Amino acid sequence: MFLLLPFDSLVVNLLGISITVLFTLLLVFIIVPAIFGVSFGIRKVYMKTLLKIFQWATLRIERGAKEKNHPLYKPYVNGIIAKEPTSLEEEIKEIRRSGSGKSLDTPEFELSDIFYFCRKGIETIMDDEVTKRFSAEELESWNLLSRTNYNFQYISLRLTVLWGLGVLIRYCFLLPLRIALAFTGISLLVTGTTVVGYLPNGRCKDFLSKHVHLMCYRICVRALTAIITYHDRENRPRNGGICVANHTSPIDVIILASDGYYAMVGQIHGGLMGVIQRAMVKACPHVWFERSEVKDRHLVARRLTEHVQDKSKLPILIFPEGTCINNTSVMMFKKGSFEIGATVYPVAIKYDPQFGDAFWNSSKYGMVTYLLRMMTSWAIVCSVWYLPPMTRQPEEDAVQFANRVKSAIARQGGLVDLLWDGGLKREKVKDAFKEEQQKLYSKMIVGSHEDRSRS
Amino acid sequence: GLHSREDFQRIPELAINPLGDRIINAFFPEGEDQVNFRGFMRTLAHFRPIEDNEKSKDQNGPEPLNSRSNKLHFAFRLYDLDKDDKISRDELLQVLRMMVGVNISDEQLGSIADRTIQEADQDGDSAISFAEFVKVLEKVDVEQKMSIRFLH
Fold first, then answer.
1. Which of B8, B30, B77, B110 has most Cβ atoms within 10 angstroms of its Cβ?
2. Record: contact B11-A81, CB cut-off 8 A
3. What structural domains does chain B harbor?
4. In this protein, which residues make up the domain named Phospholipid/glycerol acyltransferase (chain A) (predicted)?
5. A-to-B residue pairs, Cβ atoms closer than 8 angstroms
């Protein structure tokens, strides 16, 4: 028993020393650069090493699968069936053309018309454009996370060892580090903004508030090991404007706010989020709504307009899709923010899913599970493009303007531009769309009103 | 895994298809509310493209699901609401009503239905049997229009 005592104190000493060293490293390499906004480039090196390992791992799996004759599951990004992008009219005319020799210009009904609806319906059952946007994107190469790979079986000892090593590093080294950083970041944000809130209004307060916000967001960025590349920073949003971006996860806010100073818009939550929100609003005017106020569209519009018209206030950050989409497409923008009449600064955010999928599937994971998943991925890599500002032209209405902005964002980010509403994640589609289809078809059978009155 | 009708209705592009409900119905065997993977695949198998080498393969065996005749039968069943192997005037009217919504009056729809039955009906029973259905569509390129090709 006496032999254990010196051993005990040795262990305690070692533990103490390693914790001190860890924290000093943390401070020097992460927190201090965050305060000043510089970077050592450690994360970029980390990213390159990881990429090489992933490529090796994928080759190994493919080779192993070929040897054992296992069929490999390959995700196809562009769809699994051949679809022709023809309209209802053209398709039905084609069917009729092959069926009978009658003239195609007279509107009438044919029994063969049903083939069009039948085939279209079955095509959508096999592969449709909307439902696949609400679940995580499938990867073509493996990134050593068993959660993203459907082929994970025992292929070789080396690969399994590598995967095991990956798990160890991610959960035992990176996770505690990140949690410590996140904790530091959030507590600094809350205390910093509260302290700044006590200062009298003026330039000093604004300056300090800006830097407190930026510093804490930068620490949070490092807490997630987010490697962000900003493009076209000269187009960054200015005061009195609205910044719109495509929405993939709550992390979007941290990514954008660590590079610019924005006024947030949102609903007041309870719990930790609520504490953070209330602290933030003391230092600078964010626009937080009570739960009851959110339903009142006119109230929301009025408050936003007031904020925007005050040129000393910060640009507002809004995500017009209204819900998280999986970053392969951009869905319908809600027109509310485009009716206000301010300059719109579009921003496109595209995540690289190889290092960690940032999409928040809110029907599958809660917020805490989601954050844990984020913190145990390798890294969050994304690109942010600041697009040139747009204003509403006199001859377009809010919906057209919203669609124009949406197309610009989709084009820049390499995303599919869809007209479907992100709300379809939870709700059924409106009957108006079905009625549109029925109307189109009726024209083919009986012609439009003008034709009938002529004959 | 089993699918129910609600699972299909969650697909937005299917929900806006005027005949969406009829198509969903085709997956479910008589009186059942759930379809398993086998049943699902059986129904989808109707839409496999017809390949030439299959035509000469097995003359004595049962006809493959994606033959021209079976594809036409699938479409016939979409019209035949009560599954009595005849498309009556009422059934045709109901399916037409699904396809056009509120945009055409009852009388006009009625006359369209009458004309269609008149043209197709050969045995004078004011209904379209499967044989008559096939005759009307004999020139239509069913193989191409009722087939879905997989990429890769």
1. B8
2. no
3. 1-46 (no CATH), 64-151 (1.10.238.10)
4. 241-352
5. 144
Contact across the interface for B75 and A120, Cβ inside 8 Å: no
- How many whole angstroms separate alpha carbon B99 and alpha carbon B103? 10
Among B8, B9, B10, B16, the strongest candidate for a mutation testing the A interface, having the largest count of A CBs within 10 A, is B16
Are the beta carbons of B151 and A79 separated by less than 8 Å? yes
A374 pLDDT more than 50: yes
Highest mean pLDDT among A78-87, A202-211, A241-250, A284-293: A241-250
Q: Using CB atoms within 10 Å of the CB of residue A432, give its burial: 0 to 12 exposed, 13 to 18 middle, 19+ buried.
A: exposed
What is the model's pTM?
0.73
- Smallest Cβ–Cβ distance between A124 and the set B14, B74, B100 belongs to B14
Q: Which helix (H) or strand (E) holds A343?
A: strand A343-352
> Quick check: helix, strand or coil at residue A200?
coil
Burial class (CB in 10 A: 0-12, 13-18, 19+), A303: middle
Q: What percentage of chain A reaches a pLDDT higher than 90?
A: 4
| Chain B contact set for A108 (CB, 8 A) | 112
The full length of chain B comes to 152
Q: What is the mean pLDDT of chain B?
A: 81
Model pLDDT, residue A189: 84
